[in-house]
């Protein structure tokens, strides 16, 4: 979404001098720049911050007659012009609702408006470049990349509507769903070809395959054992270790000889993983 939104913001910026009748110095920005976007959006009267810490655009925000909810992208145009006076800000609308807090499978909320990012599935599967803690893997469920649970259960998203931007529809880019088996079988070249122009590039191949190993272990689908075994010789230690754990949760008997072998792996964390797998079997 970054290049799509930025291009449109820059087109709007180029039109402002003619529309305003004055010279304009400005810069378009999206979330790759160091701006507190949600705080600025709240100050501008766009919406309020939900208990799950995301920006919620309610009915009445900016004159809207319907709820937009939190499935929005934020972008900015910074100008050297004086702004209008104070704007009317929508009141916080969560009230006593705590559906987002209760629905989080990893208990990532330490309380309302307080997210522990280290427990968030979106962080664990995207921003986290290393190992996923063993105690967190089961709670990840079938989320291979990111998580929307706290938004899916939000009443303000009950009437969410499809985007009018064709580039952002579910059938574009990586598509709406990912096959575990397909991800487990990806080479680096295949990953770059399929996901290079999409947000999934952020996790890199090792991160996405690592996530798929976790999801495979959660699936109970023993048909994935062969794909997991093929990853035990992967060049990335984080892939080898998570493949071993996924295999052990599907078929401990098949995983045991591999775990014993991995006790001598060159990577210390893989050795730790092998020891943990064997300890879980005893």
Task: Spell out the blueprint of helices and strands.
Elements: H1 2-20, E1 26-29, H2 37-43, E2 48-49, E3 55-56, E4 76-79, H3 99-103, E5 109-111, E6 114-115, H4 121-127, H5 134-140, H6 149-152, H7 180-184, H8 188-195, H9 204-219, H10 225-230, H11 237-250, H12 252-262, H13 268-281
Antiparallel strand pairs: 1-4, 2-3, 5-6
Helix pairs in contact: 9-11, 11-12, 11-13, 12-13
Concise summary:
Helices cover 44% and strands 6% of the residues.
Keywords:
282 residues; 13 helices; two-stranded antiparallel sheet; 6 strands; single chain; mainly alpha
The secondary structure category is: mainly alpha
Which runs of at least 5 residues are low in confidence (pLDDT < 50)? Answer: none
So how many helices?
A: 13
Strand ordering within the main sheet? 1-4
Termini Cα gap: 48 Å
Largest sheet: 2 strands, antiparallel
Percent helix: 40-55%
Any idea what the shape is?
elongated
Q: Using DSSP, what is the number of strands?
A: 6
Please trace the helix and strand order, writing H or E for each element: HEHEEEHEEHHHHHHHHHH
Q: Give the DSSP E fraction (strand runs of 2 or more residues).
A: 5-15%
